[in-house]
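Before anything else, study the sequence and fold tokens given here and see whether the fold suits the sequence. Record follows:
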Amino acid sequence: MQPIYMYDQSNSKYIELWVKGEKAQLQIDIGEITEDWYNADYDPSFSDTELGDGKKNYEDQNDNGNLEISTDYNEDTGINGYTDEQELARGWDPLIDNFDKEGYKAGEVRYCNGTEDNAGTDGIQPYPETEDIDRDGKLDQANNYYSYTVDLSSDKWLASKTRFDNGSETGWKQYRIPLTAMIDSVGKPNFMSIRMMRINVFGVADQDTVHFASVAIVGNEWQEKGIADEETPFYTVDDDRFFITVKNSDEDADYQSPPGITGREQVNSLDGTTITEKEQSLVLNLEGLQPGETALAEKVMLENKSLLMYKKLKMFVHGPEGSNEQINLFLRIGRGDMTEYYEAVTDVYSGWDEKNNIEIIFDEITRLKNRDDFDGIEYFEFDDGNIKEYRPINDTTGTYTGKIFRVVGDPSLSRIEKMQLGVTNTDDFEGRNYSGSIWVNEMRVVESNNDPGMAMRGSFDLRLGGLMSFNANAKKTDADFHQVNQQMPNNMNTSESFNLNMTVNVHKLFPEKWKIAFPVTMSQSRSISTPKYFPGSDILLENDPDDSLKVITNRQSISTSLKRTGDSNDALLTRLLINPITTSFTASQSENSSLEIASKENVSMSGKFSYSLSIKKGEGIPYLSWIPFLNEKAKAKKLYLKPTILKWNMNISERQEDRVTRSTLDTSSTYSFGMSKSMNVGFNPFSSSKITYQRSSSSDLQKYRYETWKLFTDLTYDSLMNGINVGDISSMRENLSVNYSPEITSWLKPRFSYTTNYNFNTKSGQNYANAGVARKFSASGTLSLKQIWEFSKKKIKSNQKQRDKKKISRSNPPAKKSSEKVIPKRDVEKKVIEKNPERKSVTEAKTVPGKKPNKKSLIKMIPVRKKITISELLGKIDPIRMSYNDNFNKTNNGITGSDTTKIYKDVTYKYRYGLGDYYYLPTGSFEGSIGNPFSNSLSRSLSISSGIQLARSIKLRLDYKQSSSTGRKYRYKTSSGDYYDEFIHIIAFEDTLELIPYDSSSTRNFIPLGETGKDGFIAPNYTLSWKISPSQYKWLNGKLNFIKSINLTHQMSGKESIRYRLINDDINYYLGEETSTYTLNFTPLIKAGFTFDSNFRIDVGYNKTMKIDNQGDVELDYLNTSVTKTFQDNMTLNVSYEY
């Protein structure tokens, strides 16, 4: 399956494919096709299980966008996320998703679409694999598509074949399937939304290979508009009588190119051979075109085209064999509805006759548009001058050449939106219908306009020490100017501009010890753009047109900033309070005029204040050093009281725009006056913790437009404490993030995270606001039992050693130093043997030949098995990995407060930081403008996993997961269609609210028992695997060495899934079960996989599954429930051979 990046195929005609194969049948699906195909729990033995699990599966496990592969961490595991060993443990064929690198290098395409192990230098995929085929960031699950079939053994839809030079067939065939020939459709497909193409191959009894050279949805830029007669100007599409195709030099044996025209030649960079590209023509196929009828084809430009830079348009025309005096062909170019266009008409003769060719000379046809004298011989005028016509006469014969050039309406070469090709049967005799094909080739514009153009620019710079700098520059570019590497100018305008810039470093006038930077920059600019042609037309303008036809822009601005450039030697208060501050101010004024705008004046001012301070952590305080029984490492832990970063920014901007339109002289004005603030605080109190707080807000200050000074009088203590909140707060955001990863011990490595995101927004003049908060808490950790034991053992030995030292020091006086040399025991024994050769060393005990060893010697010869230590026993247990997540989201729409202009003040810190799960804010109905005032959702998940190495080749894996999600939504109850107009609180006044049922669910690993499954108990899933290599067992004497390995697998997984709904029994709400599902899968109960030396593999497995579906609450309302049990037993046999 592949994405199609040009979605709209409504103008396409065929599915075209080049394929090699004789046996298979193909099903081609096009449209919106689900990308969701992977489901780890898919079981074809259950009819109600489906492919796809509703979530996007991908290899990028850490979500960093890169495919990471190393010895300790490997993401190249395929879509399912399992390695070969893990797939084998689940009872799967481990080769099912592997990429065959060696086969791919050898040109074998089998397994080339495997997603596991397809990266690296010898792979083909450098990015993480994902179900998201079109890489748009989401999993498309819609199914709306058309289906088509092709039988490769049939000639249906066969368009052409290729042959060798000796005439024999190569086996490659081209099929062209009409898009209207679909055999089925799923959902509601639409040719304007064709996003995916999927090909299925079936109908092959034996193994066969199907080769694809190309598969594409094809059409033509030229579309059949239809056929019309002289009396009916409306065209009707008739695909049987008029349709468009193409012919080219590669695929059509009867095709001949126009004289002097060949495909372009390119040199193959691999072997240096010359490749000739195919050359093709557009074919207008006509069948039974009656006298007076016209067949019309049309091409719509994707964007407006300008032909002003060219002098001619040329086109070759090929007529069929025989006399064609009864037809002519015309070409029209014009605007959207084609009521205004240029037209060229020609008679059609056999072959590529020169008399067929069309050549439109743009200067001549535009002069025809402006012509006002007509002689009735060559020049004609019709329809009160709306149609002007030129019929050239041959100077030699004095007869018409058969060409006609027309101007209809007021077209322009500067905006060509459509082109039309048409064929008219001009025969006067009824019944003389025309059938045949007309080829059109090389429609192109030639001879670009090479009128000379000039470009000039100049610059002047002046610097007065470091105090002032001045720059002036000017530039002029003619409309016809283009650079050497450009075929034509970028635009058709003459542009003139100048810029003046001056910067004064005012701080140079102050003492250098002040260490300030105070630059002031002033600038002025002017630009004029004069079009060569009248806008939207192909009429040349005079040398100095009126200013109303020009685009004129004037702009003046002044800007400054102030900052102290201090250093570490400054006083502490200076470094803390002055150096981090930066202020800036900018004012600008601009004036514009153009063809549509008589004048537009824009005045803006903005000022910014920012404070940014980065603080070193410092030495810190050893806050635990006073506790006597702690070790040195714990006592060395420090508390850092200083924040790491402090940032605060405030920006005030004012802008006014006044506009006057040229056509109506209407005046419009827009005004804005606002303030934005942001704050960022970072604090790392411990080496293992990080706290970040961010806050931003925007205010509307329009009420201070005429009394700006009140901005300062309104700065009360209350507004200062709330972050200089003046004006009407329109939005506010707060983000709090707390991360803690304590280094408690080597055997426990926990990680904790708490984040909140608060949003508040309202509009000017609105007496209510909307608020919401998202809270996330997560905790994870790894616990190693082996490291716990070794840590405890080390601690016990250390304490015992210290006690022994104390005893020795108390009982034994200090020993005197001895000068005697200590001789090692082995050296003493060696010397004794040298003196007495008959004596044998204990370390060299030997048995006398022919004499049976005594019982004591036999015992010494039997190897004694080493006792396993507790540390080694615990080492067989994998580290226990635990993870817990808690996500809570809530929203309040239509919140009110004691002061409707400062509602944000009534949003408490509990709400903003997510400290109250179901804490809501006062809300007003406001005459029904707020339909859903309250909603919340809560989800929690827990997972624990580990494993035990029972023996060298026997592994037991355990994992347990449980999750739950719930939420509530409320809306106002109505009376006669009106909302209650009163303030309410969800707890105190719940009678005015109506509860909307909200999905709640829970899942956990569970072993079901009993009729309904609820009598069971929670238990982890487990997988037991045993890998045996017969060659390792010598007692087999090599009898089974032809078996490379034997893999035995047993797996059990149980699951409980419950969906809840809130029920109102007229007294209160309670949570009742809507459905509950229990599954117990032994997949496999037992499975044996045999891998042989010849890459031959056999897998035999036996599976048992049970599923219980409960509809309704089987515990509280058993009479109104239903229970369905399904049992399934099956055996699997897989035989595979890799070659």
Notes: The chain is about 10% helix and 45% strand. Residues 556-689 form one domain.
